[in-house]
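Regression test case RT-17, inverse folding.

Input:
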């Protein structure tokens, strides 16, 4: 389950920074590599900071493993990937460069979905095909 950052509650406690580590199951529609699926939940390690203007900066990493058939030779393949997470949340609506939040609660779902999407490769290769491609 993806946690929510309670900005009002944390600001009232004068707790303006924190770390989050959790796992979540990504949406099925995120993968467009044929015959491939997530081997396990996505792992996320994040650091957040509540700034003076009540915007919230979130950064960290997501890590996940894909398994399925090699996009090149159709042999079984499994490979781990990681991606950077960075986002700024502002009260109200986001503007395309920032994410918005309402009622003092930052929902990280959209940010994490974007981070996983950017980290997904265009294809999954088995060890042998990956080595041949590196040559």
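Golden output:
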């Amino acid at each position: 389950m993806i946690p929510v950052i309670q900005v009002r509650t944390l600001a009232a406690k004068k707790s303006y920074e924190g770390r989050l580590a959790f796992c979540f199951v990504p949406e099925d529609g995120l993968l467009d590599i044929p015959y491939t699926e997530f081997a396990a939940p996505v792992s996320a390690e994040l650091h957040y900071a509540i700034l003076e203007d009540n915007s919230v900066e979130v950064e960290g990493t997501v890590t996940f493993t894909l398994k399925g058939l090699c996009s090149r030779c159709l042999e079984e393949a499994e490979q781990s990937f990681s991606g950077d997470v960075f986002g700024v949340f502002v009260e109200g609506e986001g503007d395309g460069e920032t994410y918005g939040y309402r009622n003092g609660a930052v929902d990280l779902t959209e940010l994490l979905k974007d981070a996983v999407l950017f980290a997904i490769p265009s294809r999954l290769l088995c060890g042998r095909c990956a080595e041949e491609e590196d040559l």
